[in-house]
Structures are given as structure tokens and as C-alpha cells.
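Go through this one:
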Amino acid sequence: MKTVLVTGGAGYVGSHCCKAFAQAGWSVVVYDNLSRGWRDAVKWGPLVEGDIADAATLGAALDRYRPDVVAHFAAYAYVGESVERPEIYYRNNSLGTFILLEEMLKAGVGRLIFSSTCATYGIPERTPIDEEHPQKPINPYGWSKFMIERMIEDFARAHGFGAVILRYFNAAGCDPEGEIGERHEPETHVIPLAIEAALRQDRTFVFNGSDFDTRDGTAVRDYVHVSDLARAHVLAAEKLCGEHGVHVYNLGTGIGTTVAELVEAVGRISGSKLRIAYGPPRPGDPPVLVAARTKAERELRWVPQQSGIDRIVETALAWHRDRL
């Protein structure tokens, strides 16, 4: 049985990936400081409670469990917060990953899957966005992930690491079996906010911009089900066990959905009428972000299976209904 150590495995995408690894026959170890994750989301293996920047605790975990692969999710991921407090993003995300790479090198662990983001592309010059698109981040969150990608490539060249860098588009939905879901404090993600507005009369859904150059004036995003993302990580780990080098893949569906279309789906599936309001667009918010998924499909044999917008909303709605 192969072992994967999952940093940030108590968080949203990380916990779904832990389930996918366990179902694929892997032994799963979670490393998380629980600052933005949830203890009750750790269901498929032991939890080592520690900070990504705590070299001693991290190194001890690597030495104890000797993972075949490290799947690295531990990061702060709020764009607005990164603008207001860039120092914590560079310290936690960038410096934290540097410490992880150092400790992996000391422990002789040479395979890494990195949870990156389409935010490294910035404002797209063309869509759909392929992996060769120029990377020009426009906020500290995107820059922190961009810096990590460069570090990984340099470590791989110098020390023979194998790595898969996965650039997510919009992770969405919840575990179809209802064991885990999407929780953030504060909540900033569009689908949970729309569902809250559908299920609670005291909540209003606010559109961040309504005059984009799109088919209905609202932003277009590529929503990909979190369980599909999780399966991509298992496929990436299997690839790393057979070959080294650095491989980069976009994870999206190639289909764009406007925020207005998303809100319509939430209202229709929930049977509720959302109270809505309109606000200004967020600074630097691109009108369209849609992935080219050809490379992941060709090399990882990854095809999204649950990422239709209705399926995403159905699984998210089921999770949130049980909690609200």
C-alpha cells in the first residue's frame, strides 16, 4: 500500500482528495494546523497537527510515515485578504512551501503534487486558457502560488524531484455521499453564498459586477466539481510513481457558466427565490476564466464526470441543507 501525506488535508479540496486516495487504496496521513481546516473532516487516516512552517514537526512526520507522495494543499486562499495582508500569504504559502521542500529533501521524499491555481495567469490574453498561457498574477495570492511553482521547478532540476502542478479553476460542489463539504470562515465562494441566500430569508446574494462584456453581464467561470479535482490528484500520484520530471495541468471543464446562470440554477434546484443585489466588480476580476483541459485529458486520462452545473449545485445544496 502506498502512502500519501496530505498537507492541508482538513480543508475543502484537501479533505475530498483524502477520500479519493483512500478509495483508491492509498494510506492517507493528514498534516494540518486546523487554522482553516476542520478536525471532523479528517476521516481517512491519522492527523498530524502542525504548521507547514514548523520544520521540526513536519520533518518528524515525513520521517515517521515515509510517504511515497506528498499532496500539498496547505495555503491561504482569499484574494481580497491577500491584498490587505500580503505578508501572511508570502510567509504561509511561499515560505511554508520552501520549508516543505527542504524537509522533503532531508527525508528523501521526492514526489510532490501541488495545488496551484488559475490565479497565476492573471487577466487572460485568450480563452480557453492552456498551460502555455503567460503567467502574470495580479494579486499576492496569485503571486505566492506562482513563486511556489518556480521553487518546485528549481528543486526538481537540482535534486531530481518529481512533481505535478495542478492549476485549479473554480472548485465547487460537495462530496456526493455527504461525508464532507465546503466550509470557509468567512465564506467568500459564490455557490455557498448563493445557497445561503436560497435557504435563509435574511441573506442577500450580491453580484460582484453586472456589466462585464459577457452574454448576460456577469462574470464567466469554469466550475469543476471537487470530487473530479480529487480524482485528478490520484491520477497525478499514479503518474509520479512511474516517472519523474515536472508536469503542469489545468483542471477545468472547458465550459463557462455566468454567475447569473449559476444563481438561476441554485434557485431552480432549491425551489427558492433568491433576494439579490448588485455591487461593483472586484478589482482586477477577469470577465472570463475558462480552462483548456486537453492536456490533462490526454496525459492523465482525466475527464470531469460530475461537473455539470446542476450536479455541482445539487451536491452543494444537499450538504448545506443538512447544516443550515
